[in-house]
Specification:
GO terms for molecular function: DNA binding. This protein is an alpha/beta fold and about 80 residues long. The chain is built from 3 helices and 5 strands; from the N terminus they run E-H-E-H-E-E-E-H. The protein is globular, with a radius of gyration of 13 Å.
Length: about 80
């Protein structure tokens, strides 16, 4: 049995964002969505996530910039086990 995960999905394509979120929710996951980098940063500060799934190119930044933000701001959680 799969464990329930809290997942943050980041994409500025609303249709794709909602389809992916719905598919993951149907599989029992707790899903938060963000339509860009800044919104994702706010979500990361407000909650803990097991997984972040991000688009690469968005209107307010890139998935790589978001990854760098996660690495620097949440370094203690990004260490290999």
């Amino acid at each position: 049995m799969e464990s329930i995960r809290k997942i943050l999905i980041v994409d500025d394509d609303t249709l794709f964002l909602n389809l992916l979120a719905q598919a993951l929710r149907e599989r029992g996951h707790i899903v938060t969505t963000a339509s860009g980098v800044q919104e994702a940063r706010n979500a990361l500060l407000a909650d803990d996530f097991s997984l972040v799934c991000s688009d690469i190119r968005m209107t307010d930044g890139t998935g790589f910039e978001l990854l760098d933000y996660i690495r620097t701001s949440f370094a203690k959680y990004c260490q290999p086990s």
